[in-house]
Amino acid sequence: MQTTLIAPRPLDVLDLPDDLDGRTGVNRATGRRQITADDDLAAVRAWLARVADTRTTFENYRKEAERLLLWSIVQLGKPLSSLTHEDLLVYQRFLADPQPRARWVATGRKFARDDPRWRPFHGPLAATSQRQAMVIINALFSWLVGAGYLAGNPLSLSRQRARRAAPRVTRFLGRDLWQEVKAYIDSLPRETDRERERYWRARWLFTLLYLGGLRISEVSGNSMGHFFCRRDADGHERWWLQVLGKGDVERLVPASAEMMVELGRYRRERGLSVLPTPHEDTPLVLPLGKSTKPLTRSALHTIVKDIFAGAAGKLRLRGDEYVVRAAQLERASAHWLRHSAGSHMADGDIDLRLIRDNLGHASLTTTSLYLHADDDQRHQQTEEKHRMDW
């Protein structure tokens, strides 16, 4: 007879009945495993152990894995490793309104995880939170498949449909629109010192976002002292930018000769030496005036949005046939430049493995376990095929 649990308990103290621990789950893989876990709880803990040193990521991942595991055993009475695609469609609806409320939703203030009044939810999840939950759950299933623990990912079909429904082409700039943006930046006034400072800052920021494929948070959170030079096997000097990015993951971004020229111009306009010194704490992008405090993500977003809005305004002046393109520019954000960088690099026939390493993109992380691109080759191809051409 199947055993069911009456109430959910936190993952750290959870003890599953034998018939719900997943040892005989219908989705269990039969081949060789890459982890030692024999049951679902141990498998989930192995997945979480990867991010244990990054508190925010760990807590978010634990929360979503915990909710799904508890829902599976408490609500459905079946192990996580027996969940089907249809089960997960039901779970998505459950996230919008966890019922019965007394079982799943905490009342009043937030309770500690060892408090008997603890519950996995604090109310229904908003649409954006539901999507984020399913993204994390998909990552969990994909990892368990890669680890040889599960035979397949029951979310894979849903993920494909979602990708077709929201084509990525809407979130990057084609080369024609990108030329319009650069032309607008080059048209900015430079009569006064402040106007010159604003022009060179915009030019450098867009160079950094596009040539480096950086996230706005990476521009805000890193300094010029992270540029460094080293010689390749042929004795050529190559500059790099060491970036601390999303999830506190470090990566090396090729700083092409073109990028270094723009950096030197920007630094010279700010009264700095052409090249940065090691460990220099000057922010990658500076405020106007004499302040040397890093610009916030919000301030950087505002600069980018203002440039897009200005370029869109100039497009509209050309006539009705430019209205659609202008509207696309008005929707654009700093992250569009990252997508544009990746798309234009791919169009330029840069090896996809090199693009992966340049952008440090999360969706390609597992590929890096099996593919390795030579850093000097990555630098050379990026410099030759991915350019600003001011």
Automatic annotation (TrEMBL):
Annotated PROSITE patterns: CB, TYR_RECOMBINASE
Source species, domain of life: Bacteria
The Tyr recombinase domain, residue ranges: 168-384
Localization in the cell: Cytoplasm
UniProt keyword annotation of Chaperone present: no
One GO term (biological process): chromosome segregation
Keyword set, alphabetical order: Cell cycle, Cell division, Chromosome partition, Cytoplasm, DNA integration, DNA recombination, DNA-binding
Ranges for domain Core-binding (CB): 38-145
Statement: the UniProt record of this protein carries the keyword Cytoplasm: yes
UniProt xrefs under Gene3D superfamilies: 1.10.150.130, Intergrase catalytic core
Annotated Pfam families: Phage_integrase (PF00589)
Molecular-function annotations in GO: DNA binding
Chief place where the protein resides: cytoplasm
One GO CC term on file: cytoplasm
Name this polypeptide is given: Site-specific recombinase XerD
Taxonomic source organism: Paraburkholderia rhizosphaerae
Taxonomic classification: Bacteria, Pseudomonadati, Pseudomonadota, Betaproteobacteria, Burkholderiales
